[in-house]
Write a structure and sequence with these properties.
This protein folds into two domains: 1-31 and 78-119 and 168-252, TPP-binding domain (Rossmann fold); 43-72 and 122-162, SIR2/SIRT2 'Small Domain' (2-Layer Sandwich), CATH 3.30.1600.10. 39% of the residues lie in helices and 15% in strands. The protein contains ten helices and nine strands. The protein has a six-stranded parallel beta sheet with strand order 3-2-1-7-8-9, with helices on both faces. A three-stranded antiparallel beta sheet has the order 5-4-6. It starts with a helix and ends with a helix. The protein binds adenosine-5-diphosphoribose and zinc ion.
């Protein structure tokens, strides 16, 4: 097991530092993750969120998606110290890219800028036929007014801008993520089970290109045996301690 000082020394020594985050970053903000005990996949069926189901049964798809979405976006969700620590590392010039699987927008809300959204965003929906886009709240109003699946003026059925199972990840985002993983000297995977590909393959890409792999995650991940540093600690405590130590080292 590792400690914040060891991880901070690796980050301070590195030229290119890249983070990959998952739902574990946001549990301290009150958003359940997917695969922990009591996670969202205990309450919802993953198969309800495939692109095939959106096409075959858009009305029931939207009902389920909006119920899931309510957990991610209930009004008072805010960034927690883990998000703040990654934003601070970026502002201190110690983090070059933040690849996230999360769609809750909390990295941007914390002030991170170099964010690559691998799984899209949960704040808008787009018409697949004409590209028109609406905020998810507008889609919710239409569904709750009894309209059924929110439909565009052109006749297309809006699709949430989160990547659905069975759907390709945004090509530009995945290309940038691979480029970042290949170039990383330190690759920090935080708050993710690393079980869903292609995001879950990025640590492998980083290791193959010579990166030091750091994994900060409460549960064990498939990289436990390959990571240089593993911390089974809460990210909302561990990452701020790393950011504090990196700042101290930079002041020397
Ligand atoms: N600190 C550290 N680790 C945490 C914390 C915490 N406070 N809270 C949860 N975790 C860990 C859990 O141990 C778990 O292994 O975060 C991990 C979250 O894993 P998942 O729930 O699988 O979430 P994620 O890896 O982001 O899932 C990837 O799967 O369902 C799809 O599209 C969805 O983006 C998601 C993708
Ligand atoms: Zn349209």
């Amino acid at each position: 097991m590792t400690d914040p000082d060891t991880v901070a020394a690796a980050i301070a020594d590195a030229d290119e530092v890249v983070a990959l985050t998952g739902a574990g970053l946001s549990t301290a903000s009150g958003i359940p993750d997917f695969r922990s005990e009591g996670g969202l996949w205990d309450e919802f069926d993953e198969d309800a969120f495939t692109v095939r189901r959106y096409r075959a049964d858009p009305e029931r798809f939207w009902d389920d998606w909006l119920s899931l979405h309510a957990h991610l976006f209930d009004g008072d969700v805010a960034p927690n110290p883990a998000h703040d620590a990654l934003a601070r590392l970026e502002q201190d010039g110690q983090l070059d890219a933040l690849l996230t699987q999360n769609v809750d927008g909390l990295h941007l809300a914390a002030g991170s800028d170099a964010v690559v959204h691998l799984h899209g965003t949960g704040t808008s929906a787009t018409c697949p036929d004409c590209g028109a886009s609406i905020p998810v709240e507008a889609a919710r109003e239409r569904v709750e007014s009894g309209e059924g699946a929110p439909t565009c003026d052109c006749g297309g059925v809006y699709k949430p801008d989160t990547v659905l199972f069975g759907e390709q990840l945004p090509a530009a985002a995945m290309q940038e993520a691979r480029r970042r993983a290949e170039a990383a000297d330190v690759f920090l995977a935080a708050g993710s089970s690393l079980t869903v590909d292609p995001a879950g393959l990025l640590p492998d890409t980083a290791i193959r290109n010579g990166a030091t792999l750091v994994v900060v995650n409460l549960d064990r991940t498939k990289y436990a045996g390959r990571a240089d540093h593993v911390a089974r600690e809460p990210v909302e405590a561990f990452l701020p301690a790393v950011a504090d130590r990196v700042a101290e080292l930079a002041d020397r």
